[in-house]
Structure formats: structure tokens, C-alpha cells
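Listing S7. Sequence submitted for prediction.
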Amino acid sequence: MLKAEIEQRLQALAPSQLEIQDDSDLHRGHAGNSGGGHFTLKVKSSLFSGKSQIMRHRMVYQCLQDLMPHRIHALSIKAFSTDESFI
């Protein structure tokens, strides 16, 4: 299952909290989707401390880069350091 694979790969970020929501059913058949899934991701990690949102997103994408764009078509990321609220 792709959601489990994403979770396993993101363990490289040592998350203290991680939520992955599969939104694929909401986007079936829309223009440009070649069959990959849509996911919303919330992750909290001490590795994000002192890093900008852009750098945090790059860290997440680095863990998942070979899954995009074929297995993951769209990814919404909310990345928090351990001293930030996990909204």
C-alpha cells in the first residue's frame, strides 16, 4: 500500500508526529492526473528546527522523489519543528 510506503520512507526524518491522509478518491479523473495518488501530509520533526518551510518541504520530497509523479501525483505538506504546534 502506497500510504504505508510513504510512512516508512518518512521515518528517515525521525518524526515525533506523522499523519498521512489519502485524498485520491476526491481527485479521480481530473485533468492531468496520470493515475498517481493525492496525499495530505502533516509531519513534526526535530530535524526541521531552524529550517524554512521550503527546506522542510525539500527534505520531505527527497524521501519520496522516486514516487513522483507516477505513484504520487499531488502532495500537500505541513511540516513542523518540535517546538511548533501540530495544527
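Caption to Listing S7: primary sequence and predicted C-alpha cells for the chain studied. The longest strand covers residues 37-45. The chain has a mean pLDDT of 89.
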